[in-house]
Specification:
- The structure is a single chain.
- The protein has 380 residues and is of the alpha/beta class.
- It has two domains: 5-205, Probable inorganic polyphosphate/atp-NAD kinase, domain 1 (Rossmann fold, 3-Layer(aba) Sandwich); 217-379, no CATH class.
- Helix content is 30%, strand content 25%.
- The chain is built from 13 helices and 16 strands.
- It has helices at 34-39, 46-55, 75-80, 98-109, 122-131, 156-167, 184-188, 217-234, 247-255, 280-287, 315-321, 332-336, 350-356; strands at 9-15, 64-68, 84-87, 115-120, 138-142, 172-182, 194-205, 240-243, 266-269, 272-275, 292-296, 304-307, 326-329, 343-346, 358-365, 368-376.
- The strands form two sheets. Strands 6, 7, 8, 9, 10, 11, 12, 13, 14, 15 and 16 form an eleven-stranded mixed beta sheet that branches.
- A hairpin with a 2-residue loop joins β9 and β10.
- α8 (217-234) crosses α9 (247-255).
- It starts with 8 loop residues before the first strand and ends with a strand.
């Protein structure tokens, strides 16, 4: 799959250069101990660990852009390996601190990255968790003395392989993982005292048994039933759900025991249809100023989620709802039929299509999500 420069995978990238320093000199951690560790002869290894991960992506360099921080926090290594870079205008302190990790994560999280890949330990994971938007997908490269958090891959190479799957457009599950850390002062005294600091969304290799092929209608219907049941269980009171067309959305309406306009748009609030088969103008009035979710699925066999001739979901409606409140539903078999090609937005407004592109979370079953890339018609 050829990817144009504008549609490249945007990989956020942060290295905590001093992660893991304390381990080699028996400090049992590096939090606030970098200067002491260096004075004792510790050699920074986080960049090397990060390099092992990025080496898994070398064959995909023309399909991604690394969005990173100047110097040792990312740009030096990415440039050395020949990746295309976008470097933040902000520059960290020298030497960098935990505050720099938090600032870098906050800025990258706001830039529309598809994934934030970071190298560090549990302290770094806490910094990232403190700073990123909840919708940001992250993955840690293990480089610290302490790796108790579930946001890290098992090895640097494993981290690179998961990212490579995402860049290639393969199905990758997403899940919430805990950020844990231990009290290093207590640990140095022989006491292990772990604490949960939060959760972040991470990618994971897709593990599921493909029990049916495309023709397995009965099993596909069971998957749709599970998907619909889970989505309905997550619906919120006093939120307006814009229900798009298609059989997947129809399954949700059936679960709600509500009438459905198969080739049109209905609006549901508090378990009732408040507007049926609406026009674009009617829909805009219904969503403007209200808390809304846009519930859609793939249109046709090419992977469109928005199509110019799908007039009810106008550009104004899509912009009013916003990218982060789009609920995309599709079974895994439906996504697999795309053969790794990206989803397409062809709204009739190229600037809107560009704003929407990137990795989207898709509900595929009962509490079962995958990450998949939305491009534009330029990807074809």
């Amino acid at each position: 799959m050829a990817v144009s420069k504008g549609n490249r995978f945007r990989l956020g990238f942060i290295i905590n250069p001093f992660a893991g320093l304390g381990g080699s000199v028996a400090l049992k951690g590096s939090d606030d101990m970098a200067a002491t560790a260096l004075a004792l002869g510790a050699v920074p290894m986080a960049s090397q660990r990060a390099e092992y991960a990025l080496q898994e992506l070398l064959a995909l360099r023309d399909q991604l852009v690394i969005v990173t921080v100047a110097g040792a926090m990312g740009a030096d290594l990415a440039e050395k390996l020949g990746f295309t870079l976008e470097v933040l205008k902000w520059t960290p302190a020298e030497p960098s601190t935990a505050t720099d990790s938090e600032e870098a994560a906050a800025q990258l999280s706001q830039l529309g990255i598809d994934l934030l890949l970071f190298a560090g330990g549990d302290g770094t994971a806490r910094n990232i968790c403190n700073s990123v938007k909840p919708s940001t997908t992250v993955l840690g490269i293990p480089a610290g003395c302490k790796i108790h958090s579930g946001v890290y891959a098992i090895t640097p190479q494993a981290a690179g392989k998961v990212v490579a799957k995402m860049v290639r457009g393969e199905l990758v599950s997403v899940q919430e993982a805990q950020v844990m850390d231990i009290d290093e002062v207590a640990f140095r005294s022989g006491t292990v005292r772990a604490k949960r600091y939060g959760e972040m969304q991470i990618p994971a290799e897709l593990r599921y048994v493909q029990s049916v092929k495309t023709a397995g209608k009965e099993s596909e219907e069971l998957v749709l039933d599970d998907l619909a049941a889970y989505f309905v269980s997550q619906m919120e009171d006093d939120v307006r759900y814009i229900m798009g067309s298609g059989s997947t959305v129809a399954a949700v309406m059936a679960e709600l025991n509500l009438p459905n306009t198969l080739l049109g748009v209905d609006v549901v609030e508090n378990g009732e249809v408040i507007a049926s088969d609406v026009t674009a103008a009617e829909l805009l009035k219904l969503v403007d100023g209200f808390d809304c979710r846009l519930v859609i699925t793939l249109i046709g066999g090419q992977g469109h989620i928005f199509f110019f001739f799908y007039q009810e979901l106008s550009r104004s409606v899509i912009r009013t709802v916003g990218r982060e409140l789009i609920c995309l539903l599709a079974t895994k078999s439906k996504i697999q039929q795309l053969g790794g090609r990206p989803l397409i937005s062809d709204s009739g407004d190229p600037s809107l299509d560009q704003e929407l592109q990137g990795m989207l979370r898709i509900l595929c079953g009962y509490n079962d999500y995958v990450m998949y890339r939305l491009g534009t018609s330029e990807n074809e």
